[in-house]
Amino acid sequence: MRLTFAPILAALAVLLLSACGGSDAEPASSPTSSPRPLRPLTVEMKVVETPAPPAAETPPPEVFVEAYHHHEGPPAIVSSEPEAGPAAPAAPAAPPLPDRPIAELLHPPPYTVFVDAGHGALDSGAGNGDLAEKDVNVDVATRLAPLLGASGYNVYLSRWGDYTLTPFPANTYENRRDEIQARVDVANSVHADILVSIHHNGGPKSARGLEVYYNPNRSFGQYNWTLADLTRQGVVNHIRSAGYDVPDRGVKNDAGVCCNPANPHSWILGTNDGFRPSTMPGIIGEAMFVSNDFEAQQLWRPEMRQAIAEGYKAGVDAYFGWLLPQVPPPPPPTPEPTPPPTPAPTATPTDTPAPTPPPPSSTPSPAPSTTPSPAGGTSTPSARRLPGPSPGSN
Q1: Is residue 66 a contact partner of residue 266, using CB atoms and an 8 Å limit?
Q2: Are the C-beta atoms of 212 and 284 separated by less than 8 Å?
Q3: Strand pairing partners for 120?
Q4: Whether the Cβ atoms of residue 197 and residue 71 lie closer than 8 Å to each other
Q5: C-alpha distances in angstroms, 92 versus 76, 80, 86, 262, 274?
Q6: What are 123-162's pLDDT values in tens digits?
Q7: Burial class (CB in 10 A: 0-12, 13-18, 19+), 353
Q8: Spatial separation of the C-alpha atoms in residues 111 and 105, rounded to whole Å
Q9: Widest CA span of the chain, in angstroms?
Q10: pTM score, two decimals?
Q11: Pairing status of strand 210-214 against strand 282-289
């Protein structure tokens, strides 16, 4: 019997089509149908808020540390040597000289101004490329000095060029401290009425603006603040008049310029252990940031340096204008005592009677001579012949 395979092949074809999903049924959506399934967007979705960048270009002033601190001393001295036990107690430091009484500050002109051009020689201060703070400081100081002198002030400068008052073989903590001590000593020796220390700031490149430091913890702290605030106003106004709208960072306590806990204030304005303090109101001016590229370009301009010097001059004038009405008027002159009148001498009475004048004579007195007698004597001097012909020669 011969078998026919056609029906068998047709049945197999129908079975294969059903197994391979050839029908119109919707395939199942099993999570294991794909090795990397897509994650549903609604599962554990969170909204993350990105903080907006700060609107102001200049960060808050308190973020930055003023550049002047770098010659005030190291922040800490950490030794790698093992501890040798407790150290012997140190000898007590000599107490600082007492502040000069306020009354000595209140006197009429002329006034004496000590101008300190910060840094110098190996101590360059802040820098930006070829621009060194020490050079800008002395340039502004030597522009300020003739302005003050022309107005009648006595002016002393800590330096006129790139040098120091003390030996300065290396830029060390001790040498910087000794140099500032020498400058303070000069200011005290000339009996300056105020001390103006000219600096320019350093810090992050984004930092810019002007700030003035003062010490509130002196007996003349109010004078320090007034000088600082009036100088701030003067320098800000003159910089802006020169074409740059400099940010005003305000007046600040000079305790912030020092990173050494042993020195609560700057050397030049404070009273620190073993340091002879200044004895007059003073300030540290920081007109702009050398470290900021834009402000460094401003400081290259001679007209900008001149404007800064004129701003300091305006601040000094305003300070003494504020001070002068407080000067007590001089006391009225004390009249000389009038000596008592000297009594006239009284003749001593005697028992001898006064002589009786003789009776007048009947003989007439001779006529008085018409020849005048020379004054002061009875003898007639010989005649002095004048040049010319003798009498009767005609």
Answers
A1: no
A2: yes
A3: 123
A4: no
A5: 21, 27, 17, 14, 10
A6: 999 999 999 999 999 999 999 999 999 999 999 999 999 9
A7: exposed
A8: 10
A9: 230
A10: 0.64
A11: antiparallel
